[in-house]
Automatic annotation (TrEMBL):
The lineage of its organism: Bacteria, Bacillati, Bacillota, Clostridia, Thermoanaerobacterales. GO terms for biological process: cell wall organization. It comes from Thermoanaerobacterium aotearoense SCUT27. It comes from the Bacteria. This is Signal transduction histidine kinase LytS. The keyword Thylakoid does not apply.
Amino acid sequence: MLNLLILLAERFSMIGLLAFILSKANFFKKVISNNVSYKDLSILIAIFSLIGIIGTYAGIPINGAIANSRVVGPMIAGLLGGPFIGLIVGFIAGFHRFLIGGFTALACGISTTAEGLIGGIIKKYYKNTVDWKVAFLAGIIGETLQMILILAISRPFASALSLVKVIGVPMILVNSTGIAVFMLIIKSVFDEIDTIQSKQAKIILDITSKTIPYIRNGLNIETAKIVSEIIYEAIDADAVVITDMKTILASVGLDGADEKWHIFKKSEVNAFRFKKVYVENSKKGLCLLSSVTAPLYCYDELVGTLKIFRKNKFVNSTDIEVAKGLSNLISNQLEIADAENQKRIADEMKFNALQAQINPHFLFNALNTVISFIQYNPDGASKLLITLSEYLRNNLRHAGKWITVGKEIENIDAYLYIEKARFGEKINVIKDIDSDILNMYIPALLIQPIVENAVKHGILPKDNGGTIIIRAKNNKDFIRFSVEDDGEGMDNQMRLKILNGESENNAGIGLHNVYERVKSIYKSAFFKIDSKKGYGTKVSFDFPKFYEERKEEVFGGLKVSNSR
């Protein structure tokens, strides 16, 4: 029995070597990571069926039977691929054993099929690779079943019993150990995959955090240079190149002679059609210059490439996966950047157009006021006309831009001057403005729409008019603005509709516009509308301090409008 145990262990060493070689195959890694195609499954079935058949031929003839390691192939196939794969491999290896003949042929054929199925059933209850201890136990169960079937089916019984006494323990121990060792080898591959994936994820995450602020500005020479340098440092490549469809935008690590690599080859373009990376290994003089090229897309349109180069060695799997990940990342960010830019342009155009629209009634009434002033107050008419001209010019010039608080107050004063010329003492204004905030910057027309609403919808509907109080106070890190009137006011339902953007009248749209603009710049900013029907309205909000002019307005998908 001891000699048989040693001989079986020696024979199994060949299968162990095969397992190690097999573990390095790409398709095998796909099977382990559950990223498997029908082609990979077919290869899996063929290889493990072959292992089962080799296990039979590598067996040791004993008393008209064969002590063997046939079960390893079907059992491992089941533990990896599930019941169907285990059953198929078990049947192939078992049927082959049956064809060889011998008084245990039927029992061995049935047991081999059953052992493949047992391995598959066990796999169903494991999301990842089956633990080697479970695999060892599965081997004991499977081989014990084989011994039982030999005793139950094989005849004469005396020969079957004599055979089981000799081969039972050695086969159970060696094959169970072999299955466990095989699963340990597979686990090492699984751990290797986890390590590689963790490394790739860390690299991509690190690159992502550093490159997103630049990629969001689009693909150009400046952003490409910064991004390529970040990638170059992060993956320790020999060279990194980013191109558009015609030229190299940026390269790090390449000399001038190497820049011919940016020319697209037909095979490269064919790969890009399916959004796949392209790997090339080329002899250049006495050195090897290998590269992996990943396409960059924006809305499914090829806009450029990312190339990673290795000198004197092949690109590795990490390079390929990182290239794929970065291709997706950069492509997604380019789409986001383009969408945001288009949205910003559309919103800015909408904002400029709406702010440029002067209500014909306001202009008509202002001009009528000027005409009436000409008759009895020519100097007043001249001043009013100059004020109106300046007011209109500022509305057109500053739309969509940032201006100082002082300039915004000047525009409000111009508006109020025109309205007071029309309605006289019906409109009273009180201003409480801190002088130390006048040079700070805010978006143009941020406060004026609230003042206009207070005049048009608060004060003017009242027979006796009313008072508007405009405040701008320095409040630590913010400026607290408020516009208060003692006019008509509104109920709570109307107030909520304005904040939710559900109001359809001009007053609601104007206030909601200011609310959205404030929130788009500082989401947690304080903004409050206090109002009571018949008692007036107070709109107050905090705005961050900006000491320099912003180059562009911040839009948040808002419905831009003023109250005129």
